[in-house]
Amino acid sequence: xxxxETREDVKTEIAKGTCGATETDELTWIVYDEDNDGxxxxxxxxxxxxxxxxxxxxxxxxxxxxxEMELILKNGVTHIGNYAFYFLQxxxxxxxxxxxxxxxxxxxYQI
Length: 111
Hints:
The protein is mainly beta. The chain is built from no helices and six strands. The radius of gyration is 15 Å and the shape is globular. The model is unreliable at 1-7 and 96-111 (pLDDT under 50).
């Protein structure tokens, strides 16, 4: 008897890019379709440094603003940029950080 493989942990990258404030801030963002239904489900930001500031609709993930997404901020993010999540319908379900200094969004504790 063989156990059937499940694909629950397979995520599909929909879009990705960089979002550091300067050349020395090495932050990247990735939008995933976690359940393979064709919709963006997760916005993950990782790396080391500060996030760039944006105008109210210029963050690179704004095209997904109508998707209800889980936001995952990894350790190493030291600043959230202005208007980074403006109009975004994110769920703060899995924050992988303890706290962000100068956070203009929300204080998020590690779960």
